[in-house]
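Hi all, long-time lurker, first post. I run a small reading group and we've been trying to get comfortable going from sequence to structure in the token notation. Rather than ask abstract questions, I figured I'd post a concrete chain and ask someone more experienced to write out its structure so we can walk through it together at our next meeting. Sequence below, copied exactly:
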Amino acid sequence: MSDLTVAGAPQEVELLKQATERQGAERLERRLIIALVGGLLLAVSWLVMMLGWHRQIAQIPAAIGALILGIPLLAGAWRELTRGRASSDSLACLAVAAAVATGNFLAAGFLAFFLWTANLVLSRTAWGAQRAIRDLIDLTPDVARIVEDGVEREVALVEVHPGQCVRVRPGENLPVDGRVVAGTSNVNQASLTGEAVPIEAEPGTEVYAGTTNLTGQIDLEVTAVAGETTIGKVEELIREAESTKTERQELIEQLASYYVPVVLMVAGLVWFFTAKSADTDIRDQAAIRAITVLVVTCPGALLISHPTAMVAAFAAAARLGIMIKQTRTLEAAGTIDTVVLDKTGTLTTGIFAVSRLVPSEGIEGASLLQAAADAEQSSNHPLATSILETATKARITPADVTGYQEVHGRGVKATTGGGEIYAGRANWITEINPDIAPAVRDVEAKIEGMSGVHVMQDGNYLGAVGLEDRLRRNAHEVIEKMRHLGVRRVSIFTGDRLSVASRVGQAVGVDAIEAECLPEEKHEELKYLMASGHRTLVVGDGINDGPILASADVGVAMGLSGSDIAANSAGVALMNDDLRHVPFLLELARKARSVVAQNIGFSLALAILGLALAATGQINIWLAPFLYAAGYVLVIFNSLRLVRFGEEFTEAEDARRRLEAARPVKPTRSAMQAA
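-- Answer (accepted) --
Happy to help. Here is the structure in token form:
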């Protein structure tokens, strides 16, 4: 029963989200009805006055309209006051109340109408952003085709649980995250990763909800559903961006809390110096000027300066498959001056190939490969995978393992019928058996520049397997781009040997290399950099990178293929393995900081301009709400520029991938040899 409850929790959360969104849409409709009813009453009042009918009769619909439109403003002001932070609703409510107090019901009504309409436009914009998120999630079908004992049946997505088998036919979107267990197909993952070229899915391939199955029928073993899917997590991150308050946003709100008393004081001074005369008309004019000051200086545009820019930046990042977990992470990325890169799987592809077998004296190469495969068969490390693939091609079957232990950053220990086998780093092997140190040094000299897996069985040193992987395309270009963006120091932290790390470091042009590091040593090196005042960004993909990804100012996990520990520890997860997304993230963060600063500047400039015009009588109460709304519009449209940021990057990358996909593939040397 407990398993069922846990499995159903994500679906219940998803249903709750949908219900909340429906409530948001209904609330927006109610606000629109209020605006229409109030506006109609004001129009009737204005028409009666234009026709010259009795003034007192004309005031009745105006008073009712002002009451209908003013109550929501009063509710917003009350919420602000109970939180101890008077803000835009408080000033707006005070302005409407002052207009009513002076007997200007029609002015009060139109004032409330324009302010309410401006807030309605902002609410519609926010709801539209939520709707866009919902559209992203709607890529996931509401039903799934479950296969049990060879029989298909359609069920609601909320009834699907991890471990079940789901069938997806050509042309359908995937309803769940899963692992292909039968069939082959091309899957378009552009909606999730930004990759234009479809991937080839075959048994064992991880695929994701919301992506499109193009060519063949596939059966999936479900690994995640609803909000637990990768695309569900993207939705959650964007929602968090809307609600998270960073230090800068809190600073803006504090500024607004001081801003309101200053505005009230200025409005009072305007009224005092304008209302010196005993003339009633002049006193009324002074009150109207003071009311106008309150309207044009409402800090609504200031308060949305930060969140609108952040949500737009998150949307731009998501389009390229960059998942940013918190708004503060994006802000921190704008101040980075030091970048730390893992080597394997980050600067290099992480796809290793066995380049050389170097057996110790008196040992056959086949015996070395057999022992290495026996030891590494239970590991998911890239080196282990490559060794097993080579063993399979050599028709070597790993022996049964009766005991297994993986020592992170060092190697593995396996117990088989042939005895205890240690496979891993040279210094770990020699620590266990110092007598083999000379033999290890001899073998090390023969695999200089390669990643080596040294093997010892029952105390006898068998030799090493030398492996190599390739640099990622554009790795050097990426580092140069980061330097152009203001990064002063680029380092490699790796557990690999110094000779291997040096070869990679020289090829890409880094400033420093820390090689043969254990996870705790990487962490200590990072702490030293941060204590020295460096603002650090760490890029990695493995389990060993988890501690420094979590500790850095910004941690970036590489690719969907990276380990869950790395992705969960990092503040940013790249949905594909394109290293160029790292400088794009830095550039986007700097652009977002610039847009926020522009928004704040626009908001304050408009407020000062409006204050000057209102205090001198150059703008009347009818135009004041338009100036107030102009601040909202200016800030929103300035922020929306970020949504399209990086489109050139996407278009150029899509064109390159299409060109590569159309280019005929040349047979590799190994393939020709096999033929």
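A couple of things your group might point at:
Residues 2-50 form the longest helix (49 residues).
DSSP finds 25 helices and 22 strands in the chain.
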